[in-house]
Amino acid sequence: MRAKLDAESLLYIVLVLVVVWLVLQIVNEVFSIVGTLLGPLSSLFGLVIVAVIVLWLLDYI
Q1: pTM > 0.70: yes or no
Q2: Structural domain contains residue 14
Q3: 4-17: per-residue pLDDT in tens?
């Protein structure tokens, strides 16, 4: 049997995971441990994902 989750519940989970990922990216940049390996575009990509999900949840998309 499949679990019955709404699309918005899944989007909230994805939003939380992306926010956690962004926080980890910021920490890595501050401490310069992994920041040089991942490059500056990975944080930008995460911000775009967060913006799209928030706009969708607020019914702007």
Answers
A1: no
A2: yes
A3: 778 888 899 899 99
